[in-house]
Write a structure and sequence with these properties.
Helix content is about 65%, strand content about 0%. By secondary structure, it is mainly α.
Length: about 80
């Protein structure tokens, strides 16, 4: 059994020592995942929704313009 000052455990050939310190696992990974979704996913979803709403309203305005021009033509034909 060989131990070191830094790692007072049995370090034989099969011993794995993390080079990056303690790695989060379990609930910590879940929290990191939720925070990542809130930081990146939520704003993307909001901007996508705003883009679709703008696009849909633009299409509705174009449709209303076509209806107005068609009704103008009907009124002009009826007046003459």
């Amino acid at each position: 059994m060989r131990t070191t000052k830094l790692f007072p455990v049995d370090c034989q050939l099969g011993c794995i020592i993390s080079l990056f310190g303690p790695v989060p696992g379990g609930m910590e990974l879940f929290v990191v995942f939720i925070v990542t979704i809130l930081l990146f996913g939520l704003p993307l979803t909001v901007f996508r929704g705003l883009f679709l709403a703008h696009k849909r309203s633009k299409e509705e305005i174009d449709e209303l313009k076509r209806e107005v021009s068609a009704s103008k033509e009907q009124v002009e034909k009826g007046d003459r």
